[in-house]
């Protein structure tokens, strides 16, 4: 009797876990929504400043922190459906400095109709290159030579 009760509890936990995994919303599991998976892929493979992709920039940052023997905690990639074919992609990063921890929320907006990725937070904006591929207008002052000193 006791053995059967134990098996019933384990079976109930397994079935409950399976039902939870199956029913959780796309914000928690972007792979259940093909468009959410596409939005995530567009962000992760988008060009980054100094790196071929945004995902490689995060991986390199983790490697550097590990080499310095400092902590780094990356949250899960989250994909949130906005409206139509617009999605928001987020990742949270907590990074140990020499005296304190720094927390950053990286947020991007993705339009699947035009396949554009736009930074929606300051940390994400720092990863995005300037130019026509980034969705941001180029800064014409950066292309012109600096002004001579006045004095």
Describe this structure in words.
The protein is an alpha+beta fold and 151 residues long. The chain is built from 5 helices and 5 strands. The chain is flat. Strand 3 and strand 4 (101-111) form a beta hairpin. Strands 1, 2, 3, 4 and 5 form a 5-stranded antiparallel β-sheet that branches. The relative contact order is 0.11.
Q: State the helical fraction.
A: 25-40%
Mean pLDDT, all residues: 82
Low-confidence stretches: 133-138, 147-151
E-strand count: 5
Strand content: 15-25%
The profile of the biggest β sheet is: 5 strands, antiparallel
Number of helices: 5
Euclidean distance between termini CA atoms: 94 Å
Global structural class: alpha+beta
Shape: flat
What sequence of helices (H) and strands (E) makes up the elements? HHHEEEEEHH
What is the C-alpha radius of gyration, as a whole number of Å?
22 Å
Secondary structure: elements and pairs:
Blueprint: H1 2-23, H2 34-44, H3 54-67, E1 72-74, E2 78-81, E3 86-96, E4 101-111, E5 116-119, H4 122-127, H5 140-143
Antiparallel strand pairs: 1-3, 2-3, 3-4, 4-5
What's this, in brief?
The protein is an alpha+beta fold and 151 residues long.
What brief labels describe this structure?
151 residues; alpha+beta; 5-stranded antiparallel β-sheet; 5 strands
């Amino acid at each position: 009797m006791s053995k059967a009760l134990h098996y019933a509890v384990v079976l109930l936990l397994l079935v409950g876990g399976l039902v939870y995994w199956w029913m959780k919303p796309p914000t928690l599991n972007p792979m259940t929504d093909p468009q959410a998976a596409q939005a995530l892929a567009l962000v992760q493979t988008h060009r980054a400043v100094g790196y071929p992709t945004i995902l490689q920039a995060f991986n390199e940052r983790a490697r550097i922190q590990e080499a310095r023997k400092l902590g780094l905690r990356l949250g899960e990639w989250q994909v949130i459906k906005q409206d139509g074919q617009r999605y928001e992609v987020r990742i949270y990063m907590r990074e140990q400095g020499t005296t304190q921890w720094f927390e950053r929320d990286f947020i991007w907006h993705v339009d699947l109709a035009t396949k554009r990725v736009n930074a929606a937070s300051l940390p994400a904006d720092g990863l995005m290159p300037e130019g026509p591929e980034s969705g941001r207008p180029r800064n014409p002052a950066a292309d012109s030579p600096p002004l001579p000193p006045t004095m």
